[in-house]
Amino acid sequence: MELRQLEYFLMVSKLKSFTRAAERLYISQPAVTNTIHSLEDELGIQLFDRSQKQIILTTEGKIFYRHVENVMKGVSKTLLEINNLKNLNGGLLTIGITNLGSLNPDTEILQKFSKLYPNITITLVEKDSFTLQQDLSEEKIDTAFFFTSDNPAFTHMFLGNNELTLCCSFNHKFRYKNSIDWLSLSEEKIILSRNSGFFGHCLKEHIDKIDPPPQFIFEPMQVQTIKSLVASGAGISILPRELCETDTNLVTISFSPQFFLPHYMAYKNSRTKSHATEAFITFVKNFVTKGVDTL
């Protein structure tokens, strides 16, 4: 059974005439008649009573009509939705971010892309870098922002560097320092999750050299929780400068030498991508190569 057969059947049913249906469909009358005969043979029932001046649906034809009408409405709706996806008037996009996902340019990219494509629904999934890479490999997410570029299965787009700084309260002994070295953190209480990809990729080699080592406490995953604990004087933390420098309850201190966190947007190489994902990748490429002012 073909959609063409159902389309012809509905037109004949509505106009009660093979001739008028053919005119409306811009085909010959024999083509319509032969298609309906073929459909009746395939179903094993007679759909139309041809004994009257106007052809009318048989009892079986009326039942078939109700179902076919619903099917064709569903087909039309599906084609419309697919066309909307192709034209980026709709679609879904799932993007992975770390608990440091409020970094620029992530937020700027997301805001401007959403403004450019308001009908694309964006879902943000917040996890650590390791889990985001696994989700990207398993195609649970479309793209991700994180801090490593060592997976050959992904294409990584470099978005820039973020300076990592020490954050402390205004009552901490480090508060007047202009810069600090890693060894000065010996026996300090550090509020940071050691299970995060952020720690594993960026901080572990520096922390491991400190003797006696610092003490990790609380180990929250949310940045705001870390900042609140630091502001209360519970300990210090190591965070990107832009997440702390506008907080009037925190002091940010550069490391000596300065320490920068490389930042990437990644997507899986082999995956068949949706139109929404392709549009997002193209948008980020333009952001990186041309700058946001030219978008």
TrEMBL record:
Q: Name one Pfam family in it.
A: LysR_substrate
Matching InterPro entries: HTH-type_LysR_regulators (IPR050950), LysR_HTH_N (IPR000847), LysR_subst-bd (IPR005119), WH-like_DNA-bd_sf (IPR036388), WH_DNA-bd_sf (IPR036390)
Q: What is the lineage of its organism?
A: Bacteria, Bacillati, Bacillota, Negativicutes, Selenomonadales
Q: Which PANTHER family match?
A: HTH-TYPE TRANSCRIPTIONAL REGULATOR YBHD, LYSR FAMILY TRANSCRIPTIONAL REGULATOR
Q: What is this protein called?
A: LysR family transcriptional regulator
GO terms (molecular function) for this protein are:
DNA binding; DNA-binding transcription factor activity
Q: Is Transcription one of the keywords?
A: yes
Q: Name the keywords, alphabetized.
A: DNA-binding, Transcription, Transcription regulation
Offer a single GO CC term for the protein. Answer: cytosol
Which protein family is named in the record?
Belongs to the LysR transcriptional regulatory family.
Query: HTH lysR-type domain spans which residues?
Result: 1-58
Q: Does the keyword Cell membrane apply?
A: no
